[in-house]
# Entry
Amino acid sequence: MDSPIPEKNKTGWLEHLEAESWSAELIISGAAIYGALQLPWLLTKLIHYSLLNFSDDILEIMYLVFIYLTFAITILMVNFVMHFVLRSLWVGLIGLSSVFPQGINEESEAFSKSYIQQLKHDFGDLRGYNEKIDRLCSIIFAFSFSFAMIFLSIAVMVLTIAGIAYWIHQFNQQIPISMVFFSILSLVLLPGMLNGLLNHKKLREMAWVQKIHYPVLFKGVSRIMFHVFFEPVYYINSIFITNFKKRQYSLSVLTYMALVLPVFAGVFIQSHAIFANKDYYFKYANREDRFYPLHYEDQLGDNQLIQNPMIPSAQIEGSGLNLFLPLPMREETRLYQKYGAYPNDPQLSASENTLKSRAWFREQAGKYFHIEVNGKKYTPSLRGYNHRNAYEYGFLTFIPASLCKEGENVIYIRSEYQVDGKKRECYIPFWYSNR
# Structure
């Protein structure tokens, strides 16, 4: 039988590993910064795909997923940059200690004795200051992964519940997906809220509470919520909670979130996740009194998804202009809700029915969009088109020069997409010259 490893040797190995961990942290942190900075791009691609291919019911749920994923990405970005900067500072201070091992020179005449003593009291010696930064770096490193895993776990849980809600909706389409989703989510979150309530000092020492608090509410429910991340998330957070005072830990988390929120807002806005919100999509860029860059192809930004009707430019010269009418899945769903689906003719072949359904869909699209040029209704010929920007599906049509006048013109588009009984409107002003 093998003899156990002496406790002294195990402790020495652990202390040696802790002492050398900074180099591994620095390498991992540097690589993680590079990787984390790529994540917003991947998130944007996921969001763009969702905006083009999901209906409002699904997007309402995906909006929550986007929020949690953005938080996870933001936390990784902020924490790894902070860790890299502080760990680099720590390495610099190690080098500085080899030059000035005593740290602040108490014999210096640069300040008064009282001033230097107060400096020494506040900052301590160089070794103590290094240890303070070292501890902070280690906390940040563990904290970043812990909180990122929390938000990622919640995002996965929300996606899973959304999948279950969608599956139930397929069996009975009279039941809205959102209603099923939030009902299941409430059932999942209820034990978690009960877990927090039973942790109150007046309740947690009761015998019946102790029988269910940890084994049922904590281990059982938390494993469902945090699944594969359960052990690292709860172990790391339990270390923090049991080693910091509750007030201190809560204030630290609130301060940290205040630091993260501005970065989160920037990433969230740039990713266009806000368009998953039905009200925002409905109201965005619907004012008649201003120009919006998103209505003009020559002002389209990098990684910007086309969500509104678009013309080539705000200044048009020549014989007319193209008009692109995007039709994401949320609008296509509304089109089918209003006009129904094409009824297949059993006397026709599959290919003939396909051709008929395409013609039918094009006809319904002509009804779905109401177009006016300078106040006069225009009924154009619409053709299906995938825009070269991000392959957005929609319809392309042409506005002839005969409808345009010298100077300022306005194209008005109203679709059957509705929120609170109001139809979505869009105004595209432009200057026209026939020269």
